[in-house]
Amino acid sequence: MQRKINLLLLLFSLLGAGVAFVLGELLLDRRPYDLPQMVLVGIYFAIVALCVGIGALVAETISPRLNGQSWKLRYLGTSWKMFPLMVVLLLGVGTLTEFVYELNFGGSKPVKNVVMVIDDSGSMSQSDPSDRRYAAAKNLVQQLKKDNKVAVVTFSNEASVIQPLLPLSKAANREKVMEVISSLKTTEGGTNISGALAEAMKVIHEDGADRGAMVILLSDGVSQFNTSTELTDYVARGIKVNTIGLALDDPSGASLLQNIASGTGGQYYDVADANRLGDVFQQIYDRLGDRTLLTERSDQTADSPYYAVVRVLALMLLGTALGLGLGIVFDNRHLARSFSIGGAVSGLIAGLILESGLNGDTLWDPMTRLLALLVLAAILTLFTYIVPVGEGRLSRRGRAAGAANAPADSVHSPRRNRGSKGF
């Protein structure tokens, strides 16, 4: 048993992590076949196992400093045959940990129902003469996922439900909602925010499904509204109201929308130019509440210490599984122990990096994931200097093969019975 380092294995594992990062970002960006998030995350970590594992196996084939020359001569073929097991292991552990991470505790629910509440009062002819708010709303509908439902409420003096909550699982439904929004136009009248939010809550109640909901309220005016009483249902159900103030000249209008957003845990957006509405709706969409091990928590669990701990523990488990998988591939119980312990430590650090670094930024988040992967690969492969390793087969097949290939003169002769006496 010796403390060893294979610098070539470290280098190739880091290269493998870099390749896994590129492939993983493409996977997260394109989300092929509308895969469920837990399956997507499982595939992501299977890719990590594939790339890091190939790098480690090639490095040890070139320079077998950790597993020994005898492994290269006798068991290299077996290692390649065992390689798919490592990939499947990470696929399973990744899917399972993501499943646990997505479980909702404490009454929290991911946002699935979106209710757009749009001001169409007479003042909008000056605030938004080109009807950019309708174009932004249609763009949001286009981006929503198939498991979302969407509703549209408009208001001036009175509020009207133009489209009740409709599932977007069918393309025809998505087109229907967009046609409804296209038919909207500016009317006459004032700004009845109270009635609008009351109608939005009715829509949410009538759906009856136990799904998380969110409201997007856009207005350019001021309204009589009692935030201490009229937001009671929203606060009780944990429904955020994100508010958009468009070209507000009256400070009391901006103050009201800010209070509505802060009172429900939502976000307020101050927009001076209607041409920026598309960007604002995009920001709201980006914060709808996807919760994965690899992305920022943007729902009501954003500051939850529970989910922070679960993410870190999940990465520890994934790191341990990656190390164990490498030990299985090399068919070495000492390497399995060393890599598993190193994987747990590197997973802990990688989890802390993700938890503290992910913030929803399109440039920063990928760099955070890259750093986490590099740390995971580096610490895992360097841990053989801390936990000593030597030759020691995991499988009986390996031991049998070793015995079959052993030189004849290495077989010990039967031990003489020292208790016998003779002349």
Automatic annotation (TrEMBL):
Protein name: VWA domain-containing protein
Ranges of residues in domain VWFA: 113-284
Residues that span the membrane, as ranges: 40-62, 83-101, 306-330, 339-358, 370-389
Species assigned in the record: Paenibacillus rhizoplanae
Record-linked InterPro entries: CLCR, VWF_A, vWFA_dom_sf
Pfam family, one: VWA
Keyword entries, A-Z: Membrane, Transmembrane, Transmembrane helix
